């Protein structure tokens, strides 16, 4: 586990970019200037505890994750086989290719949902019979 300002800054930058936030967006969200954020992301400045908390809130992640790269929320998640292959491959794609792949995923999910709805309708089950409680 690497706890250094360089690694913390890298995680902040990576998470910000993952969320497609600019340094200006971060300034609006948590009041940290672009220059200060740039120094934090480059590991040359240590944020105050309050600024660090504000950054974690703006990035919608825990301070623990920003410090260690490990979140208590993700410690128990295991990724196997095809899931790992998909995740690793996704990370290698350009942003445009990631967007295209997400669009394809949404299309497949809608198709699956429609198939489920059609199957439920054709089986003639009511909401109560399907196990859905009303009220």
How does the SSE layout of this entry go?
Blueprint: H1 5-18, H2 23-30, H3 34-41, H4 49-58, H5 63-68, H6 81-92, H7 95-123
- Can you give the mean pLDDT? 85
The proportion of residues forming helix, as a percent range, comes to 55-70%
Radius of gyration: 21 Å
Helix and strand succession? HHHHHHH
Structural class designation:
mainly alpha
Largest sheet properties: none
Total beta strands? 0
Q: Unreliable runs, pLDDT <50, ≥5 residues?
A: none
Shape: elongated
CA distance, first residue to last residue:
49 Å
Q: DSSP strand (E) fraction?
A: under 5%
Task: Write up this protein.
It is a single chain. Helices cover 64% and strands 0% of the residues. With 135 residues, it is an all-alpha fold. It starts with a helix and ends in a 12-residue tail after the last helix. It is built from 7 helices and no strands. 10% of the residues are buried. The longest helix is centred in the last third of the chain and has 29 residues.
Task: Describe this protein with a few key phrases.
64% helix, 135 residues, mainly alpha
Briefly summarize what is shown.
This protein has 135 residues and is mainly alpha-helical. It contains seven helices and no strands.
